[in-house]
Amino acid sequence: MRMSEGVEWGLHCCVTLAWLEGDGPVSTARLAASFELPAAYLNKRLQALVRAGILSSTPGARGGFQLARSPERITLMDVVAAIEGTDDVFRCTEIRRRGAGAAASGREFGRPCGIATAMRQAELAWRRELAAQTLADVMAGTPASAAERTRRWFAAERTHT
Amino acid sequence: MRMSEGVEWGLHCCVTLAWLEGDGPVSTARLAASFELPAAYLNKRLQALVRAGILSSTPGARGGFQLARSPERITLMDVVAAIEGTDDVFRCTEIRRRGAGAAASGREFGRPCGIATAMRQAELAWRRELAAQTLADVMAGTPASAAERTRRWFAAERTHT
User: Which residues of A touch B37 (CB under 8 A)?
Assistant: First the structure.
């Protein structure tokens, strides 16, 4: 079981866009180049972030992506949900009702399966933790040199193109 | 992102084996029939639980599987780790070092990536919750009628075969 690499891409792009705040939209090509990522695949992830209201996109030659709201208001859960969806990781297929369970009274299954309930409770602890951490929190733990270096790299790119 | 259905199978089989405690080993064929699962695939999951020390297996015509320790000492985390492995769900591929990051000093990367750290922290909350819940806890939340029905079903199976 593995989370899509798009989550790592999306989170890093959001942090980059937060660092470049005020510089106007950033194109997929430049974001892709800044991490050496395949532009077409990255664009799909960025579009998913737009649909989730995390990024806004501006069309046209000078267009691209910007954060749609401040890093304090974007949680890790928002980005994970935008890229991975919101389905439970553990999906109960109710095997308890099959085979030996087929003859059971419906009443026995009135309560949700104890296994599914316990698994869901654990997953909620994960989602709560993801929802408790914002992009701003993550950025606060990143060395200032990374932000400066990123700004310099994009500024140099702008000069060249 | 989805957990293997083998986790649901493994957890239900462990609960069933706990209910049948004292009846001797239970074969893959009978466990598979009790949930209408494909026996060959189920066997792979059961073997993984044996390798993890959760089940013990007895070879031979009357052989099969039993819990290797009491349900109080088997956590949901044990079963998930046995079936899914222990790799992080979010895997950092260090894209921060590529492209714009290639020119950065190594010192900037001395600390782990803030994104990876935050994602790992959230995942730990999930694993802690899985590790805090035992099979015995799950069984305590299951209707007694399910345990009785399961015992009756396996007893009838034994008579027929």
Answer: 95, 99
Report yes or no: A66 and A17 within 8 Å, Cβ to Cβ. yes
- Chain A nearest-CA distance from B10, in A, is 11
Q: Do A129 and B126 touch (CB under 8 A)?
A: yes
Q: Which residue has the tokens 């992506």?
A: A65
pLDDT tens per residue, range A33-81: 999 999 999 999 999 999 999 999 999 988 999 999 999 999 999 999 9
Complete DSSP assignment for chain A: ----HHHHHHHHHHHHHHHTTTS--B-HHHHHHHHT--HHHHHHHHHHHHHTTSEEEE-STT-EEEESS-GGG-BHHHHHHHHH-S--SS----GGGSGGGTTS-GGGGSSPPHHHHHHHHHHHHHHHHHHH-BHHHHHHTS-HHHHHHHHHHHHHHHHH-
Q: Which fold has domain B5-160?
A: Arc Repressor Mutant, subunit A (1.10.10)
Cβ separation A104–B15 shorter than 8 A: no
- The answer, as to whether pTM is greater than 0.95, is no
Cα-trace Rg, chain A: 21
Reduced to 3 states, what is the DSSP secondary structure of residue B66? Answer: strand
Residue with tokens 């996109």: A57
Q: Which residue is it, tokens 């044990």?
A: B78
**What are B83-121's pLDDT values in tens digits?**
999 999 998 888 888 888 887 777 778 788 899 999 999
Interface confidence (ipTM) of the complex? 0.90
What is the C-alpha separation between B16 and A36, in angstroms, rounded?
50
